[in-house]
Every structure is written in structure tokens, then in C-alpha cells.
Amino acid sequence: MGQFEKAATRTRDYCVADTATLRADRPFAAQLWLAQDDKVMSIAQQTPVSEPKSVPAAVRRNGRWSGYRHLLMARMLELKREPEVVFWVFVFPLLLALGLGIAFRTKPEESIPVAIVGENGFADAQALLARAPQHTRFKVQVLNSEEARQGFRLGKFDLVVEPNANGGVEYVYDPARPESVLAKTEVNDALQAAAGRKDSVATNAVTSSEPGSRYIDFLIPGLLGMNLMNSGMWGIGFALVDMRQRKLLKRFVGTPMRRGDFLLALASSRLILMIIEVGLLLAFGVIFFHMRVLGSIAAIALIAGLGSLTFGGVGLLTASRAQKIESVSGLINLVMMPMWIFSGVFFSYERFPTVIQPLIKALPLTALNDALRASILEGTPLVHQWSRLLIMVLWGGVSFVLALRWFRWT
């Protein structure tokens, strides 16, 4: 055995003896373990320390409508960052009501412009009008036949009176112009009364311009319905296509979000704006035009809320597959234009032929305007308006279901 082997043997024997000593004296200290084939390995070993077991925290789960609430809040924050919404939703209807209210305000009786052709004894007709009891209502000018007819065509005169050789007169008027028909009736009554005609029946006229019977009272509920339609169609349809163009809807696809919650949040976001706009327009009518509100505020709010949801559903359906702003703008105008004309916003739809009245009454804006007018001007209970409310529910429900079925995220 060489010197190297003897040295290795002595080292190994020393390590084994030292290890035995450590085991006897300090059983919980670090121990040295000698591996076979002359390899030494050290391991630090400590006595295990027992630690209290931690109780896992309860997993927090979102409720069924948590996603809907967050989507609704996000939509309201988006509206807050769009200042133009404040003008079109709140300010524009007030300006429109103010302008139309001033144009159709209650004002003194206007004079009737009349042209008398200066031929064939015109002085007699002029003298008869001057002696009539209502002569102050007429603004008379004597002109030749060509000038009188030219002024009538341009709207300067409501009536042309042309005396003939037999002592009578001929009236030139337009039956399509209400003011021309009225002028013909008024001038004829004045001439006949001045010539000595006696009325067989004694009559008495009483004027009435009380709140509730004026044009502004008819107009305010129509503006309410029109504004709810505009905000529902444009506020939802336009915003939806804008998000589709900016690829935001594509990002929503990767989230654990229900499609119905997203569309419902868009539609119901108009309810919060509806409360403000209905309150502003009604208060404006009451303060500035002394309009009377005979129905309950709760009934009016319920009708307006249902109308807002109805047009929110129609707006979702209109924009469910549109890819560009230009496309959805054309579709929205196509849907809204018939209701602008037929649904009685600025004038009564009773002027249209009887044959299309059922179709007009089936439109959602017609049902909304009729319900608002009945509640505001007449105080009609909701129970008596079930047919109008049913029309709005059907339009809104069917539109929302179809939008949910046909909706495209990209």
C-alpha cells in the first residue's frame, strides 16, 4: 500500500470516529456523512418546526348581475366624456320648445290682408267693408287686377275681391290655405252685414286660450316622445357602431361577459338620461308657458321609461350588423323618418287618411306620444292605456330579442 493510500485510510478513520463523537454528544447538531469510495458529503439538518396551518380565504364570486352593473357604469362614464351629448339630449329640446312656443304663442287677433281690384265700382265694396262691424280686422289695398293676383300668388294677400258690373263681387282664394278660406268667410260676412243682412239666430262668440287647449300644450308631450326616440336610436345605435369600428367589441369577446348584459346595459343607460330630460322639459313648459300637468309624476315617468327602453331596443336592432357610421346613419334615418311625419309630433295624425290610421297607431312613437298626452293633459290612468303600453312593450321586446340573435361583434 502506497503512502497516498495510507493517508486516505487514516483520514477516513478519523472522520468516522469524529462522526460517532458528534452523534453521542450533540444529537441535534449538524451531522457529517461519509460517502463510499472516499467521498465526503455534508448536510445541514435541523429539527422540523411545526407551524399552524393557515385557513384558505373564501373565494369571492360575482353575482349574476355584477357584469351588467359594471357595463352600465362604464357606459355612463363614456357619456360623461362626451359633452356634445349634453347639448343634443338636454339643451336642444328646450331651444326647440322655446322657438315653437314663441312662434305659436297666444297673441292678439291678426289683421286680414285683402286686395280689392280697382274696377267696376270698387268704391262700393270698399265702403261696405269700412262700415262693417269688424272692419278693424281688414287691411285693404286697392290695386289693378294683375298686381292683386300677383300679390295673392306671392302670399301678400289672403283674398282678392273683384267687383263686377252687376254690383256683385267675385272672391279669389285658395282652398288649400286655411288663412285664405278664413279671409273669404270673414269678408263675405262683413259685406253681407254691411249691406243689411240680418242673422236669423242670435249668436255669441267666447274666446278660450286656457292652458291645455293651446298648441304648446300639444307640442311639449310630442317633443318628449321625439327626444326619447332620438336619444334611444342615435345614442345607442351610433355608439355601438363606433365601438365596432374601433375594435372595442372584438376585445369584449375575450371577456367572461354575457352578450345580453352588454346590450341591456347599452339600452338601460338611456333611463338615467331620460329622468333628467323629461324633468327638464316638463319644468320648462310649466315655468315658461304655464302648462298644466294633470297626471301623476310616477305615471309619466313609467311611460317615458318604457318608451326609452323601447327605442333603445329598436336602436340596438338597427345597429346590430352595421359596419360603418354612414350605414347606421342611413338606417336610423330610414326608421325614424316615418315616425317623424306620421306619429303626431308637431301636428295631429288625424289629418291623414282614415285607411292608414291603424298603421299609424301601431307605430311606437305614436303610442308613446298618445300615452304622454293622455297622462299629462288629461290625467288618464295607466290602466286605461294598456293598449298603447302593450304596443311599446312588443316593439321593444321583439327588437331586443332579434338584436341579441343577429348581433355581430366584428
Structure write-up:
The chain has 410 residues and is α/β, with parallel strands linked by helices. Among the domains are: 83 residues, abc type-2 transporter like domain (abc type-2 transporter like fold, 3-Layer(aba) Sandwich), CATH 3.40.1710.10; 188 residues, no CATH class. The chain is 60% helix and 8% strand. The longest helix is centred in the middle third of the chain and has 31 residues.
Based on helices, strands and strand pairing, what is the structural class? alpha/beta
Q: What gross morphology would you assign?
A: elongated
Low-confidence stretches: 14-46
* Biggest sheet record: 4 strands, mixed
Strand content: 5-15%
Elements, N to C (H/E): HEEHHEHEHEEHHHHHHHHH
Summarize the helices and strands and which ones pair or pack.
Blueprint: H1 3-25, E1 31-35, E2 39-43, H2 66-80, H3 83-103, E3 112-117, H4 122-131, E4 138-143, H5 145-153, E5 159-163, E6 169-172, H6 178-194, H7 215-245, H8 248-253, H9 259-289, H10 297-318, H11 325-342, H12 357-361, H13 364-378, H14 386-406
Parallel strand pairs: 3-4, 3-5
Antiparallel strand pairs: 1-2, 5-6
Helix pairs in contact: 2-9, 3-7, 3-9, 4-6, 7-9, 7-10, 7-11, 7-13, 9-10, 10-13, 10-14, 13-14
Quick structural overview:
By secondary structure, the chain is an alpha/beta fold.
Labels describing this entry:
410 residues; alpha/beta; 14 helices; four-stranded mixed beta sheet; abc type-2 transporter like fold; two-stranded antiparallel sheet; elongated; 60% helix
